[in-house]
Task: structure prediction
Amino acid sequence: HAAFSKMPEEVWRWYLYRRSVCRAAAPNRAHGALVDLERALGDRFLLLTQNVDGLHLRAGNSPERVYEIHGNIDFLRCGDDPASLRPIPLAIGEHWTRESPFTEEARALLSCCDGGRLSRPHVLWFDEYYDEALFHFQSSIEAAVSASLLIVVGTSGSTNLPMQVGAIVARRGAPMIVINSEPSPFSEFAEESGAGYFAEGTAGDHLPPIVEYLGTHAG
Result:
């Protein structure tokens, strides 16, 4: 946020380039598996994601069951006003490079409705805090308190809200499956809880068979 306050156009240039990289990516087998799991579980399914690339929604997960707790790079907002949250205009394009200039046309497209200031990317920056209105903070905590199973996929445990969710589930002794390429604080939670399992490897390898099992036993 500090950088955006000092040089908003440069920050926007970087995020538009980063968005172009994300838009060029396609959902993988793990994304598809989570779509299948939502179909099997319905309202019992909730996905908390730290990813801002929007791939879970593009894969087919429903917005009402996906908490993008760090935001979504395809959206913008005016300051911290949740009512101003909206998709980045299609006219801004998806082919920005590191060298693309921030033109007057881009400024107009990314301005707030009052036309007097630039909007900002809808992402949680490192010098900002989680809240409920924009990032589902309290709802995520409540989900951890009542979850019957937590599956943690590919996260290092370096941000606050995911760690709180993992700690709550572990303290409850609820089942937990952790999939990661190497041990993490979440694999320690799984080991300490007495009802956890650490699957070392990739999400693409481990999630599909886990989802197939859970879908078969969803009733």
Observations:
- Residues 8-24 form the longest helix (17 residues).
- DSSP finds ten helices and eight strands in the chain.
- The beta strands are 47-49, 66-68, 71-77, 86-87, 120-123, 150-153, 176-180, 196-200.
- The longest strand covers residues 71-77.
